[in-house]
Specification:
Bound molecules: aspartic acid
Number of strands: 16
Structural class: alpha/beta
Strand order of the largest sheet: 3-4-2-1-7-9-10-8
Number of domains: 2
Oligomer: single chain
Shape: globular
Radius of gyration: 25 Å
CATH class of the largest domain: Alpha Beta
CATH architecture of the largest domain: 3-Layer(aba) Sandwich
Helix content: 25-40%
Length: 439
Protein backbone atom coordinates (compact mmCIF):
# COMPACT_ATOMS: atom_id res chain seq x y z
CA UNK A 1 0.00 0.00 0.00
CA UNK A 2 1.30 3.41 -0.96
CA UNK A 3 -0.37 6.27 0.88
CA UNK A 4 -0.07 10.04 0.75
CA UNK A 5 -0.95 11.71 4.02
CA UNK A 6 -1.80 15.37 4.37
CA UNK A 7 -2.07 17.00 7.78
CA UNK A 8 -3.99 20.23 8.28
CA UNK A 9 -2.92 23.20 10.39
CA UNK A 10 -4.67 22.16 13.59
CA UNK A 11 -2.96 18.75 13.35
CA UNK A 12 0.41 20.56 13.40
CA UNK A 13 -0.27 23.50 15.67
CA UNK A 14 2.26 22.53 18.35
CA UNK A 15 4.79 19.88 19.37
CA UNK A 16 2.14 17.69 20.98
CA UNK A 17 0.18 17.56 17.73
CA UNK A 18 3.39 16.81 15.80
CA UNK A 19 3.94 13.84 18.07
CA UNK A 20 0.47 12.49 17.35
CA UNK A 21 1.12 12.92 13.65
CA UNK A 22 4.41 11.03 13.80
CA UNK A 23 2.71 8.23 15.69
CA UNK A 24 0.06 7.99 13.00
CA UNK A 25 2.69 7.92 10.25
CA UNK A 26 4.82 5.31 11.98
CA UNK A 27 1.77 3.10 12.60
CA UNK A 28 1.52 2.31 8.89
CA UNK A 29 4.52 1.68 6.63
CA UNK A 30 2.45 2.66 3.62
CA UNK A 31 2.34 6.30 4.77
CA UNK A 32 5.30 7.30 2.64
CA UNK A 33 4.61 10.80 1.37
CA UNK A 34 3.66 13.52 3.83
CA UNK A 35 2.15 16.90 2.99
CA UNK A 36 2.01 19.32 5.93
CA UNK A 37 0.09 22.59 6.29
CA UNK A 38 1.44 25.53 8.30
CA UNK A 39 0.83 25.49 12.06
CA UNK A 40 -2.80 26.33 12.71
CA UNK A 41 -4.64 27.47 15.82
CA UNK A 42 -3.62 25.99 19.18
CA UNK A 43 -6.80 27.29 20.83
CA UNK A 44 -9.93 28.90 19.47
CA UNK A 45 -8.83 32.55 19.40
CA UNK A 46 -5.24 31.81 18.41
CA UNK A 47 -3.88 33.02 15.04
CA UNK A 48 -2.81 30.67 12.24
CA UNK A 49 0.81 31.10 11.16
CA UNK A 50 -0.39 31.73 7.58
CA UNK A 51 -2.38 34.74 8.81
CA UNK A 52 0.59 35.95 10.85
CA UNK A 53 2.72 35.77 7.69
CA UNK A 54 0.26 37.76 5.59
CA UNK A 55 0.09 40.35 8.35
CA UNK A 56 3.86 40.44 8.75
CA UNK A 57 4.33 41.00 5.04
CA UNK A 58 2.00 44.02 5.23
CA UNK A 59 4.53 45.56 7.61
CA UNK A 60 7.48 44.90 5.28
CA UNK A 61 8.12 48.66 4.92
CA UNK A 62 8.29 49.23 8.67
CA UNK A 63 11.51 47.71 9.95
CA UNK A 64 10.53 47.66 13.62
CA UNK A 65 7.10 46.13 13.06
CA UNK A 66 8.57 43.61 10.63
CA UNK A 67 11.17 42.60 13.20
CA UNK A 68 8.55 42.14 15.92
CA UNK A 69 6.09 40.19 13.83
CA UNK A 70 8.78 37.97 12.36
CA UNK A 71 9.98 37.24 15.89
CA UNK A 72 6.49 36.10 16.93
CA UNK A 73 6.40 33.71 13.96
CA UNK A 74 9.88 32.39 14.70
CA UNK A 75 8.72 31.77 18.26
CA UNK A 76 5.88 29.52 17.05
CA UNK A 77 8.35 27.31 15.20
CA UNK A 78 10.93 27.42 17.99
CA UNK A 79 8.33 26.08 20.42
CA UNK A 80 7.70 23.13 18.14
CA UNK A 81 11.40 22.44 17.59
CA UNK A 82 12.15 22.53 21.31
CA UNK A 83 9.04 20.53 22.19
CA UNK A 84 10.24 17.79 19.84
CA UNK A 85 13.85 18.02 21.16
CA UNK A 86 15.16 18.52 17.65
CA UNK A 87 18.62 19.81 16.87
CA UNK A 88 17.49 22.18 14.18
CA UNK A 89 17.93 25.88 13.67
CA UNK A 90 15.76 27.96 11.36
CA UNK A 91 17.86 31.09 11.93
CA UNK A 92 19.26 31.17 8.38
CA UNK A 93 15.79 30.65 6.96
CA UNK A 94 14.45 33.60 8.93
CA UNK A 95 17.31 35.87 7.81
CA UNK A 96 16.54 34.96 4.19
CA UNK A 97 12.86 35.63 4.78
CA UNK A 98 13.53 39.03 6.33
CA UNK A 99 15.61 40.06 3.33
CA UNK A 100 12.98 38.77 0.90
CA UNK A 101 10.16 40.54 2.75
CA UNK A 102 12.09 43.80 2.69
CA UNK A 103 12.71 43.31 -1.05
CA UNK A 104 8.93 42.91 -1.58
CA UNK A 105 9.04 39.26 -2.61
CA UNK A 106 5.24 39.16 -2.68
CA UNK A 107 2.50 38.01 -0.34
CA UNK A 108 2.40 34.55 -1.95
CA UNK A 109 6.05 34.06 -1.09
CA UNK A 110 5.37 35.28 2.45
CA UNK A 111 2.40 32.97 3.03
CA UNK A 112 4.17 29.95 1.56
CA UNK A 113 6.86 30.09 4.24
CA UNK A 114 4.37 28.68 6.75
CA UNK A 115 4.24 25.30 5.01
CA UNK A 116 7.86 25.47 3.89
CA UNK A 117 9.23 25.79 7.43
CA UNK A 118 6.79 23.27 8.84
CA UNK A 119 7.91 20.87 6.11
CA UNK A 120 11.54 21.28 7.15
CA UNK A 121 10.67 20.49 10.77
CA UNK A 122 8.47 17.56 9.81
CA UNK A 123 11.15 16.06 7.56
CA UNK A 124 13.76 16.37 10.31
CA UNK A 125 11.45 14.82 12.89
CA UNK A 126 10.44 11.87 10.69
CA UNK A 127 13.86 11.57 9.07
CA UNK A 128 12.21 11.75 5.65
CA UNK A 129 13.64 13.61 2.66
CA UNK A 130 12.46 17.23 2.32
CA UNK A 131 11.36 18.27 -1.16
CA UNK A 132 10.62 21.97 -1.67
CA UNK A 133 7.25 22.31 -3.43
CA UNK A 134 8.71 25.19 -5.48
CA UNK A 135 10.81 22.64 -7.36
CA UNK A 136 8.00 20.28 -8.22
CA UNK A 137 4.65 22.15 -8.35
CA UNK A 138 4.34 24.38 -11.39
CA UNK A 139 2.10 27.33 -12.30
CA UNK A 140 1.84 28.79 -15.82
CA UNK A 141 2.38 32.48 -16.71
CA UNK A 142 -1.29 33.23 -16.08
CA UNK A 143 -0.98 31.94 -12.55
CA UNK A 144 -2.99 28.79 -13.30
CA UNK A 145 -1.87 25.50 -11.85
CA UNK A 146 -0.14 23.51 -14.60
CA UNK A 147 -1.33 19.97 -13.85
CA UNK A 148 0.46 18.06 -16.57
CA UNK A 149 3.89 19.71 -16.24
CA UNK A 150 3.68 19.27 -12.48
CA UNK A 151 2.72 15.64 -12.80
CA UNK A 152 5.66 14.96 -15.10
CA UNK A 153 8.19 16.73 -12.84
CA UNK A 154 6.82 15.35 -9.59
CA UNK A 155 6.44 11.74 -10.63
CA UNK A 156 9.98 11.74 -11.96
CA UNK A 157 11.31 13.36 -8.78
CA UNK A 158 9.53 10.92 -6.48
CA UNK A 159 10.23 7.81 -8.52
CA UNK A 160 13.34 6.96 -6.57
CA UNK A 161 12.38 8.54 -3.25
CA UNK A 162 11.05 6.06 -0.74
CA UNK A 163 9.76 8.57 1.81
CA UNK A 164 9.42 12.34 1.56
CA UNK A 165 7.83 15.47 2.96
CA UNK A 166 6.43 17.92 0.38
CA UNK A 167 5.03 21.11 1.94
CA UNK A 168 1.48 22.01 0.93
CA UNK A 169 -0.17 25.16 -0.43
CA UNK A 170 2.43 26.50 -2.88
CA UNK A 171 4.49 25.92 -5.97
CA UNK A 172 6.32 28.21 -8.39
CA UNK A 173 6.33 29.72 -11.85
CA UNK A 174 8.95 28.45 -14.26
CA UNK A 175 11.25 31.33 -13.27
CA UNK A 176 11.11 30.26 -9.61
CA UNK A 177 8.76 32.94 -8.25
CA UNK A 178 6.50 31.46 -5.58
CA UNK A 179 2.76 31.16 -6.12
CA UNK A 180 0.21 29.77 -3.67
CA UNK A 181 -3.12 28.04 -4.21
CA UNK A 182 -6.16 29.65 -2.62
CA UNK A 183 -6.60 29.31 1.14
CA UNK A 184 -6.80 25.74 2.38
CA UNK A 185 -4.78 24.71 -0.66
CA UNK A 186 -2.58 22.12 1.05
CA UNK A 187 -5.42 19.70 0.32
CA UNK A 188 -4.71 20.24 -3.37
CA UNK A 189 -1.00 19.55 -2.93
CA UNK A 190 -1.89 16.26 -1.24
CA UNK A 191 -4.00 15.25 -4.24
CA UNK A 192 -1.29 16.24 -6.68
CA UNK A 193 1.29 14.13 -4.86
CA UNK A 194 -1.14 11.19 -4.65
CA UNK A 195 -1.68 11.34 -8.39
CA UNK A 196 2.04 11.61 -9.14
CA UNK A 197 2.96 8.51 -7.13
CA UNK A 198 -0.17 6.53 -8.12
CA UNK A 199 -1.08 6.22 -4.46
CA UNK A 200 -3.55 3.59 -3.33
CA UNK A 201 -5.07 6.05 -0.90
CA UNK A 202 -4.89 9.74 -0.05
CA UNK A 203 -5.45 10.29 3.65
CA UNK A 204 -6.45 13.80 4.56
CA UNK A 205 -5.99 14.27 8.32
CA UNK A 206 -7.86 17.06 9.99
CA UNK A 207 -9.68 17.85 13.23
CA UNK A 208 -13.04 16.23 12.43
CA UNK A 209 -13.87 12.59 11.82
CA UNK A 210 -15.04 13.14 8.26
CA UNK A 211 -17.90 14.83 6.50
CA UNK A 212 -21.07 15.29 8.45
CA UNK A 213 -24.47 14.74 6.90
CA UNK A 214 -25.14 18.41 7.49
CA UNK A 215 -23.79 21.55 9.12
CA UNK A 216 -23.31 21.07 12.89
CA UNK A 217 -24.08 24.76 13.41
CA UNK A 218 -27.62 24.01 12.28
CA UNK A 219 -28.26 20.44 13.41
CA UNK A 220 -26.90 19.24 16.74
CA UNK A 221 -24.36 16.48 16.48
CA UNK A 222 -25.17 15.26 12.97
CA UNK A 223 -24.11 11.81 11.76
CA UNK A 224 -20.88 11.27 9.82
CA UNK A 225 -20.99 10.23 6.17
CA UNK A 226 -19.24 6.86 5.76
CA UNK A 227 -18.81 6.82 1.98
CA UNK A 228 -19.42 9.56 -0.54
CA UNK A 229 -18.70 9.78 -4.26
CA UNK A 230 -16.66 12.59 -5.84
CA UNK A 231 -19.79 13.82 -7.60
CA UNK A 232 -21.84 13.96 -4.42
CA UNK A 233 -19.03 15.77 -2.72
CA UNK A 234 -18.83 18.34 -5.53
CA UNK A 235 -22.51 19.10 -5.04
CA UNK A 236 -22.20 19.42 -1.29
CA UNK A 237 -18.96 21.44 -1.33
CA UNK A 238 -20.40 23.82 -3.89
CA UNK A 239 -23.28 24.45 -1.56
CA UNK A 240 -21.08 25.26 1.37
CA UNK A 241 -19.84 22.05 2.98
CA UNK A 242 -16.17 22.60 3.84
CA UNK A 243 -13.51 20.18 5.22
CA UNK A 244 -11.79 19.51 1.90
CA UNK A 245 -10.75 22.17 -0.64
CA UNK A 246 -13.12 21.84 -3.61
CA UNK A 247 -10.23 21.72 -6.13
CA UNK A 248 -8.59 18.80 -4.35
CA UNK A 249 -10.85 16.35 -6.13
CA UNK A 250 -9.71 16.98 -9.71
CA UNK A 251 -6.20 15.44 -9.69
CA UNK A 252 -7.58 12.30 -8.05
CA UNK A 253 -10.63 11.83 -10.23
CA UNK A 254 -8.31 11.31 -13.15
CA UNK A 255 -6.79 8.32 -11.38
CA UNK A 256 -9.74 7.08 -9.36
CA UNK A 257 -7.74 7.35 -6.11
CA UNK A 258 -9.93 7.33 -2.99
CA UNK A 259 -9.59 9.95 -0.26
CA UNK A 260 -10.05 9.14 3.39
CA UNK A 261 -10.85 12.09 5.67
CA UNK A 262 -9.43 11.21 9.10
CA UNK A 263 -9.22 12.85 12.51
CA UNK A 264 -5.71 13.31 13.97
CA UNK A 265 -7.18 13.49 17.45
CA UNK A 266 -9.28 10.33 16.99
CA UNK A 267 -7.32 8.10 14.60
CA UNK A 268 -9.47 5.11 15.57
CA UNK A 269 -12.50 6.66 13.80
CA UNK A 270 -13.07 5.36 10.28
CA UNK A 271 -13.71 8.87 8.90
CA UNK A 272 -15.27 9.46 5.50
CA UNK A 273 -14.17 7.63 2.37
CA UNK A 274 -14.50 9.61 -0.87
CA UNK A 275 -14.57 7.40 -3.95
CA UNK A 276 -15.11 7.61 -7.69
CA UNK A 277 -17.93 5.09 -7.50
CA UNK A 278 -19.29 2.51 -5.13
CA UNK A 279 -21.95 -0.14 -4.90
CA UNK A 280 -22.27 0.57 -1.17
CA UNK A 281 -25.61 2.18 -0.55
CA UNK A 282 -25.63 5.21 1.73
CA UNK A 283 -26.99 4.52 5.21
CA UNK A 284 -29.89 6.88 4.67
CA UNK A 285 -31.52 7.54 1.27
CA UNK A 286 -29.68 10.84 1.21
CA UNK A 287 -25.95 11.32 1.62
CA UNK A 288 -25.89 14.93 2.74
CA UNK A 289 -27.66 18.26 3.00
CA UNK A 290 -25.93 21.58 2.40
CA UNK A 291 -27.13 25.05 1.64
CA UNK A 292 -26.44 28.73 1.42
CA UNK A 293 -28.33 31.93 2.00
CA UNK A 294 -28.23 35.08 -0.11
CA UNK A 295 -29.81 34.35 -3.47
CA UNK A 296 -32.17 36.41 -5.54
CA UNK A 297 -34.76 35.24 -8.10
CA UNK A 298 -35.50 37.32 -11.18
CA UNK A 299 -38.91 36.26 -12.49
CA UNK A 300 -39.62 37.22 -16.07
CA UNK A 301 -43.15 36.91 -17.43
CA UNK A 302 -44.37 37.30 -20.96
CA UNK A 303 -47.49 36.01 -22.69
CA UNK A 304 -46.73 33.41 -25.34
CA UNK A 305 -43.12 33.13 -24.20
CA UNK A 306 -43.26 29.43 -25.00
CA UNK A 307 -43.47 30.06 -28.72
CA UNK A 308 -40.63 32.58 -28.85
CA UNK A 309 -37.56 30.67 -29.96
CA UNK A 310 -34.34 31.94 -28.38
CA UNK A 311 -36.05 33.59 -25.41
CA UNK A 312 -33.96 31.74 -22.82
CA UNK A 313 -30.72 32.42 -24.67
CA UNK A 314 -31.44 36.15 -24.90
CA UNK A 315 -32.25 36.31 -21.18
CA UNK A 316 -29.09 34.51 -20.19
CA UNK A 317 -27.01 36.63 -22.53
CA UNK A 318 -28.00 39.72 -20.53
CA UNK A 319 -26.60 38.06 -17.40
CA UNK A 320 -23.48 37.04 -19.26
CA UNK A 321 -22.91 40.56 -20.57
CA UNK A 322 -23.15 41.84 -17.02
CA UNK A 323 -20.65 39.27 -15.80
CA UNK A 324 -23.14 37.47 -13.56
CA UNK A 325 -23.18 33.69 -13.35
CA UNK A 326 -26.55 32.08 -12.81
CA UNK A 327 -27.31 29.21 -10.47
CA UNK A 328 -30.65 27.83 -11.68
CA UNK A 329 -33.33 28.62 -14.23
CA UNK A 330 -36.69 27.15 -13.27
CA UNK A 331 -39.33 27.93 -15.88
CA UNK A 332 -43.05 27.73 -16.67
CA UNK A 333 -45.00 28.21 -19.89
CA UNK A 334 -44.95 31.98 -19.75
CA UNK A 335 -42.38 32.49 -16.98
CA UNK A 336 -38.65 32.16 -16.82
CA UNK A 337 -36.77 32.57 -13.55
CA UNK A 338 -33.08 33.16 -13.11
CA UNK A 339 -31.54 32.56 -9.70
CA UNK A 340 -28.32 34.41 -8.91
CA UNK A 341 -26.14 35.36 -5.95
CA UNK A 342 -27.72 38.43 -4.45
CA UNK A 343 -24.53 40.39 -3.77
CA UNK A 344 -23.28 39.79 -7.31
CA UNK A 345 -26.63 40.83 -8.77
CA UNK A 346 -27.18 43.91 -6.62
CA UNK A 347 -24.26 45.81 -8.11
CA UNK A 348 -25.60 45.35 -11.65
CA UNK A 349 -29.32 45.24 -10.90
CA UNK A 350 -30.51 48.19 -12.96
CA UNK A 351 -28.28 47.36 -15.89
CA UNK A 352 -29.66 43.79 -15.94
CA UNK A 353 -33.28 44.97 -15.76
CA UNK A 354 -32.91 47.43 -18.61
CA UNK A 355 -30.94 44.84 -20.58
CA UNK A 356 -33.79 42.35 -20.14
CA UNK A 357 -36.35 44.90 -21.32
CA UNK A 358 -34.32 45.49 -24.45
CA UNK A 359 -33.58 41.83 -25.11
CA UNK A 360 -36.96 40.15 -24.59
CA UNK A 361 -39.59 42.89 -24.01
CA UNK A 362 -41.19 41.10 -21.06
CA UNK A 363 -44.64 41.91 -19.60
CA UNK A 364 -43.23 42.01 -16.08
CA UNK A 365 -39.98 41.52 -14.23
CA UNK A 366 -40.37 40.68 -10.61
CA UNK A 367 -37.55 40.34 -8.08
CA UNK A 368 -37.56 38.16 -5.02
CA UNK A 369 -34.59 38.57 -2.73
CA UNK A 370 -33.28 36.90 0.45
CA UNK A 371 -33.67 33.34 -0.70
CA UNK A 372 -31.71 30.35 0.53
CA UNK A 373 -30.93 27.28 -1.55
CA UNK A 374 -30.70 23.84 0.00
CA UNK A 375 -29.16 20.90 -1.84
CA UNK A 376 -30.30 17.45 -0.79
CA UNK A 377 -27.72 15.14 -2.30
CA UNK A 378 -27.61 11.37 -2.58
CA UNK A 379 -26.71 8.66 -5.07
CA UNK A 380 -29.36 6.53 -3.33
CA UNK A 381 -32.19 8.75 -4.56
CA UNK A 382 -32.18 7.22 -8.02
CA UNK A 383 -33.32 3.85 -6.72
CA UNK A 384 -35.84 5.16 -4.25
CA UNK A 385 -39.34 6.33 -4.86
CA UNK A 386 -40.83 9.11 -2.82
CA UNK A 387 -37.68 11.02 -1.85
CA UNK A 388 -39.10 14.32 -3.05
CA UNK A 389 -42.44 13.53 -1.42
CA UNK A 390 -40.73 13.01 1.92
CA UNK A 391 -38.77 16.24 1.64
CA UNK A 392 -41.86 18.29 0.87
CA UNK A 393 -43.96 16.57 3.51
CA UNK A 394 -41.28 17.42 6.08
CA UNK A 395 -41.15 21.03 4.96
CA UNK A 396 -44.90 21.36 4.94
CA UNK A 397 -45.08 19.95 8.48
CA UNK A 398 -42.58 22.56 9.54
CA UNK A 399 -44.79 25.25 7.90
CA UNK A 400 -42.08 26.19 5.43
CA UNK A 401 -43.08 27.63 2.10
CA UNK A 402 -41.07 26.18 -0.80
CA UNK A 403 -40.16 28.87 -3.31
CA UNK A 404 -38.36 26.81 -5.90
CA UNK A 405 -37.62 23.18 -6.75
CA UNK A 406 -35.00 21.95 -9.17
CA UNK A 407 -34.01 18.34 -9.70
CA UNK A 408 -31.05 17.73 -11.97
CA UNK A 409 -31.43 14.99 -14.57
CA UNK A 410 -28.69 13.02 -12.84
CA UNK A 411 -31.12 12.47 -9.95
CA UNK A 412 -28.21 13.07 -7.68
CA UNK A 413 -29.68 16.10 -6.00
CA UNK A 414 -32.80 18.08 -5.37
CA UNK A 415 -32.40 21.81 -4.91
CA UNK A 416 -34.98 23.64 -2.85
CA UNK A 417 -35.37 27.40 -2.50
CA UNK A 418 -36.83 28.82 0.72
CA UNK A 419 -36.77 32.22 2.42
CA UNK A 420 -33.47 33.00 4.19
CA UNK A 421 -35.36 33.07 7.50
CA UNK A 422 -36.62 29.52 7.00
CA UNK A 423 -33.23 28.11 6.06
CA UNK A 424 -32.12 26.54 9.34
CA UNK A 425 -35.54 25.08 10.13
CA UNK A 426 -35.76 23.60 6.65
CA UNK A 427 -32.38 21.87 6.94
CA UNK A 428 -33.35 20.50 10.34
CA UNK A 429 -36.70 19.20 9.03
CA UNK A 430 -35.06 17.40 6.09
CA UNK A 431 -32.36 15.93 8.34
CA UNK A 432 -34.96 14.68 10.80
CA UNK A 433 -37.11 12.94 8.22
CA UNK A 434 -34.23 11.05 6.64
CA UNK A 435 -31.78 10.50 9.46
CA UNK A 436 -33.60 10.67 12.77
CA UNK A 437 -36.73 8.83 11.72
CA UNK A 438 -34.67 6.80 9.23
CA UNK A 439 -37.55 6.72 6.76
N1 LIG B 1 -1.93 27.35 5.42
C1 LIG B 1 -2.82 27.64 4.35
C2 LIG B 1 -4.09 28.28 4.88
O1 LIG B 1 -4.20 28.58 6.05
C3 LIG B 1 -3.10 26.46 3.49
C4 LIG B 1 -3.66 25.25 4.20
O2 LIG B 1 -3.64 25.19 5.42
O3 LIG B 1 -4.13 24.35 3.51
O4 LIG B 1 -4.97 28.56 4.11
Amino acid sequence: MKKVVKFGGSSLANAEQFRKVAEIIHADKGRRYVVPSAPGKRFSDDTKVTDMLYDCYQSAGDEKALEQKMEAIAQRYQEIIEGLCLELSLEDEFSKMKEAFAAQAGSDYAASRGEYLNGIIMAAYLEYEFIDAAEVIRFDEDGEFDAETTNAILSRRLETVERAVVPGFYGAYEDGRIKTFSRGGSDITGSIVARAVHADLYENWTDVSGFLVTDPHIVEDPETIETITYRELRELSYMGATVLHADAIFPLRKEGIPINIKNTNRPQDAGTLIVENTCRQPKYTITGIAGKKGFCAINIEKDMMNSEIGFGRRVLQVFEENGISFEHTPSGIDTFTVIVHQTEFMEKEQSVISGLHRAVEPDTIDLESDLALIAVVGRGMRQMRGTAARIFAALSHAHINVKMIDQGSSELNIIIGVKNDDFERAVQAIYDIFVLTHL
